[in-house]
Amino acid sequence: IDVVKxxxxxxxxxxxxxxxxxxxxxxxxxxxxxxxxxxxxxxVGYGVEGALKFGFxxxxxxxxxxxxxxxxxxxxxxxxxxxxMASIVLCPIEDTRIKMLQDPAYIxxxxxxxxxxxxxxxxxxxxxxxxxxxxKQIPYTIGKQVSFDxxxxxxxxxxxxxxxxxxxxxxxxxxxxxxxxxxxxxxIACVFSQPGDLMLSSxxxxxxxxxxxxxxxxxxxxDAGVGGFFCGIQMR
Length: 236
Known about the structure:
Layout: H1 2-10, H2 19-30, H3 39-64, H4 71-102, H5 111-122, H6 130-160, H7 173-205, H8 213-224
Helix pairs in contact: 1-2, 3-4, 4-5, 4-6, 4-7, 6-7
């Protein structure tokens, strides 16, 4: 799904017929195996990033509560810090993943060889997309972590407040509530982070496009308006 999403974002003039047709076109042009291209950096990159993001968020919530009385503000600041710190690790890995989809020089690379090639070729320029990464990951972390906590608390109260509910007081809540809260939190996180996600793909995916944060944002807006920042959101 992420492969097709990236193709829609970086080549909208080619993959412009919706999610299903874009997937068929990728398979027709590249073969079904291409749908797994970049899986190694996806697994490692988002695995490490996710571990750091969840870990830092829960840790900062505890630490910040010692200095800030407002619980909502504590959650918000904790998510910003967690998303920012995790982005540092994810940035070059995501750069490698996108190049594995777009740049023929990276087509046969794995994570290690791709990262090595990236740093040899561009050095610390691989962090040029760090602004876009922050624009994606901080809103994503806020949307996911904070809204998950809020939704979980709301669902718990809703179910436990129902005298007639067979789930009230049941251990089934420990499974049901996170699933419900996670479902809604994931949607909010995707909407919040979509503009940053598109900018990240645009900055890394096409050498012919401006590679600066501001220039990329202006280019997207001039080409497609505000709606252009939400290209590929169906796939996400």
